[in-house]
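Quick one:
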Amino acid sequence: MILQTSDFDAGKFQISYDQNTVENLEVYLTADNEKALLYELMGKTEADLFIADLTGTPSIPVSAKWVDIFTFFAYEDIDIITSAQGIKEYLVGRVYNQFVSSQSVINQASGNGIIQSDATAGEGLITKGIVLYNRTIDEGQKVQYYMHLTSATYPNFKGLALEFRSPI
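Output:
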C-alpha cells in the first residue's frame, strides 16, 4: 500500500476527525482501491508493472522509471516546462475526494461542519471539494501526458481520460 492515514494529517488534503465524522478513512485505504485508481491513471498493464515494482511500508517504487514520476517532477515539451506532483499526490487527492464526498459534513481544517440545507450555506465550502478534485485531475493529466511523451519508457500506457467536474 502506498497511502497511509498520515498522508492526510496536514496540507491541502488534510482530513479532520470529530463528532460529525461518519466514515472511516481506512475504508478507502486499500490495495484494491489504489489499484483501481492506478488502472484509471495509466492502464492495467502499466499499473500492474508499477505495483510489481513497489517495496516497503509504505510502498515506494524501486525502478528509476517509476521513481521519476512518483513524487514531484518536471518536464519540457515544445519549450514549455511543466511540473507535476506525481503519482502519490494524485492518489492522495483521489482518496481525499472519495472520503469527503461520502460525508454528510463539510471537511475543514478546523473540524467538520454540518451541511446546511438553507440559503445561508457557504457555497465556497461546498465547492472546495470540487476545486481540489479538479486540481488532482490536472495533476493526473500531467502524469499521463508525460507517460505519453515518453512512450518508449512507458510503452503500455493506456490511461483513461480523466475529466474535470463542474461546480454547477
